[in-house]
Write a structure and sequence with these properties.
With 142 residues, this protein is of the alpha/beta class. It has 4 helices and 5 strands; from the N terminus they run αβααβαβββ. The longest helix is centred in the middle third of the chain and has 12 residues. The protein is globular.
Length: 142
């Protein structure tokens, strides 16, 4: 269970809203990773501020974390400022709660916005990267 926090923390001062990526919101009930727990990472294909109020995601997250045999974290597409820094430093997409690499999660589920380009995840150097469609209609991934 690899945390990207040592790589992420130094670059947070370079982004507009670092609180998007820190986690620890009031009411977040994420259990720490532990052997024997099935881990889920619920990904929302847009920025934190858009995905956080999504009730479907909140309900699934709460149900998974209330169960004794499962745990869940959340991930959102990084905004373009952090996305550029992540690509420059080869930092993979990560969970907000524990900053775990996406690839270290046991299972994952994704929600999608209807009638909009859907981000895709691709394998690159054994790490999953999120390709987020921006309002301009083009991906910021090089």
């Amino acid at each position: 269970m690899t945390s990207v926090w040592p790589d992420l923390e130094p670059i947070l001062a370079k982004v507009q809203k670092p609180a998007r990526y820190i986690g620890g919101e009031d009411g977040a009930g994420a259990k720490p990773p532990a052997p024997g727990l099935v881990s889920w990472l619920f990904m929302y294909p847009d920025a934190y501020e858009i995905g956080l109020p999504n009730q479907g995601l909140q309900i699934l997250y709460e149900i998974a974390n209330e169960r004794a045999d499962t745990r869940a974290d959340r991930a959102y597409c990084p905004w373009i400022d952090l996305e550029a820094e992540m690509w420059a430093r080869s930092i993979p997409l990560f969970s907000v709660e524990h900053h775990r690499r996406l690839a270290s999660s046991t299972s994952s589920a994704s929600t999608c916005r209807p009638n909009s380009p859907t981000p895709t995840c691709s394998t690159r150097s054994t790490s999953l990267r999120c390709r987020c469609a921006r309002p301009s209609g083009r991906s910021t991934i090089r």
